[in-house]
Amino acid sequence: MVAGFQGVTSKGDITTLGRGGSDTTAVAVAVAIGADACEIYTDVDGVYTTDPNICPRARKIERISYEEMLEMASLGAKVLHIRSVEFAMRYKIPIYVASSMEETPGTWVVEEDESMEDILVSGVTYSKDEARITVTKVPDVPGSAAALLTPISEANIIVDMIIQNTREGELTDFTFTVPKADYKQALEIVEKTVKEIGAENFGGDPNIAKVSIVGVGMRNHAGVATRMFDILAKHGVNILMISTSEIKVSCVIDEKFTELAVRALHEGFGLDKVD
Fold it and tell me: Region 69-78: what's the mean pLDDT?
């Protein structure tokens, strides 16, 4: 029997690992003893195509790749902590997530295989824990971005999405997102920095959400982002910011449209259809 969230500091003091400690401990123990897999029984019965609480037609995923699970965990899915998935991927330990209350099949988190690439989008995630900050008419010279963001990072505030738009007259607008809990502090820091770098103005919006689509199939299919934008447009959802990677597309939208956007994307990419 091993405490699921207990660890030690660099000085040898017993401490707790924090959120996700139980997941991470389970995978670490599985690696240490050379187990074939790590089974995690929790309060959910697997990984779903989206949050069943806002989309009743969400389906349980039988198998999902480490990369997809990492993206979904970082983008708002709360089934597994991101550190546990990183550890499992590094040491190639399959994770089985299932309910501790019901005898129902769960979800396997495993290495990617060719069959997974046939599925264009595996899941839709959302997060309401971010806020947006915009600085306008920033002098478009080397070092402006660093001058803006260095004080933010020094305050241990994580910056997620970043967009820079060039204006006429050697000026640019700079927009980025931070955790909603750090919004007030970040805004205070920006207020000081704006004066130092000679920008004209700044503002923010804490009432935003980030909706994302995730799938390893995106690597081999063109037009996925365009399709996402089209689906949101048809439902009257305006996009404020966009971020992409190899297997995900994220859009920042007005928070009040979160549930609508999630359901529209889930249906638009056919995730509500039973195989």
Answer: 83
Q: Is CATH 3.40.1160.10 what the domain over 6-112 is classified as, yes or no?
A: yes
pTM equals 0.86
What are the domain boundaries of the chain?
6-112, 117-275
DSSP collapsed to 3 states, the chain: CCCCCEEECCCCCEEECCCCHHHHHHHHHHHHCCCCCEEEEECCCCCECCCCCCCCCCCECCEEEHHHHHHHHHCCCCCCCHHHHHHHHHHCCCEEEEECCCCCCCEEEECCCHHHHHCCCCEEEEECCEEEEEEEEEECCCCHHHHHHHHHHHCCCCCCCEEEEECCCCEEEEEEEEEHHHHHHHHHHHHHHHHHHCCCEEEEECCEEEEEEECHHHHHCCCHHHHHHHHHHHCCCCCCEEEEECCEEEEEEEHHHHHHHHHHHHHHCCCCCCC
Report, at the CATH architecture level, how domain 117-275 is classified: 2-Layer Sandwich (3.30)
Tens of pLDDT, residue by residue over 14-63, are: 888 776 688 888 999 999 999 999 999 988 889 999 999 999 999 999 99
